[in-house]
Amino acid sequence: MRKWDAMNSQSPFVIAAAVAVCSVLSAAQAGDAVPLSADELARCASQVQQLRTESARLLGDNARLDVQRASIFDRRRQIDAEAAAQSRDDLAKGMGLSERRQGLNAEVTSFNARIDQIRRDIAAINQTKLDYEQSCAQRPYRRRDLEQLPQAAQDAMRAGLADVEVPYIENATTVSTEAAGGK
Q1: In this predicted model, what pLDDT tens digit does every residue of 118-133 receive, in sequence order?
Q2: What residues does 141 pair with on adjacent strands?
């Protein structure tokens, strides 16, 4: 019983110490979260707007490029199948297949240029997200500063980024002209 009595007599001290530690930690965390200035808030709102619009555009572009990539591969397989089935003596069909293959290779070159642009755009939007996370996320701001922003910027700050999916570069792959049947 004496151990119990000793623990009970120390409990108020333990609780007081725990409260003091929590208070110090809370004060330290609150001191780190300096409110955004009006200019910083405007920049953060602009980043949120950019992330919301560009992410949606890039995800849509990426989905369309996936469809185009599949189409290129399907047409390549069709040309390869026709080439394998045709007689080598049929010069007219061979020339037709060669022209189709050249057209497909030109499309692949154009496709790859769009993929390269998407990669640059994705890298830029990921940098914007990183900048936002480092400078804006989890920082308080003054209501009066928010109310001074244009309505679209206010709406963006209120909406935040929780529902925004930012694309990553791994989704954007190019097609080689050899994979498209170029030789």
Answers
A1: 999 999 999 999 999 9
A2: 36
